[in-house]
Amino acid sequence: MKVLKVDSSGIPKFSSDGNDWKNIEDIKKEDIASMLDFCIDEDVELESYDESTIKNPAQKIIYENIYSKFKAFIDEKDNFQDEVDGLYKDALEKYKVDL
Predict the structure, then answer these.
(1) 84 or 47, which is more confident?
(2) Neighbours of 21 (CB within 10 A)
(3) Which residues contact 37 (CB under 8 A, 6 or more apart)?
């Protein structure tokens, strides 16, 4: 499911749930947090950054920065999850309740 795309008129859009699309310049920190949560729980796609498709210079900067950060996050998601699991492995084993 996509969270970043550029529509046919060259306007970059974002979605924190894969359904509701908003213009990239309207993004807030809460939206980014929701998108990250969505990226952790789901397999997501990002429409590749192509500066020729986005006409507005401000939108180009915003889209390029968000795209690069999310791309890096998604590419490292498995490593990130392994790190988190490793951090809490001892605690989980110590406090695990046998059912």
Answers:
(1) 47
(2) 17
(3) none
Distance between the two ends of the chain, CA-based, in angstroms? 37
**Using one digit for the tens of pLDDT, what is the confidence trace for 16-34?**
887 899 999 999 999 999 9
Say if CB 44 and CB 1 are below 8 A apart: yes
**Two tokens, residue 10:** 């060259």
State mean pLDDT over 42-49: 86
Separate counts of helices (H) and strands (E) for the chain: 3, 4
Distances (CA, A) of 56 to 45, 59, 65, 86: 23, 5, 14, 44
The token pair that represents 78 in the structure block: 């498995």
The pLDDT of residue 98 is 60
Nearest in space to 10 (alpha carbons), one of 24, 20, 28, 27? 24
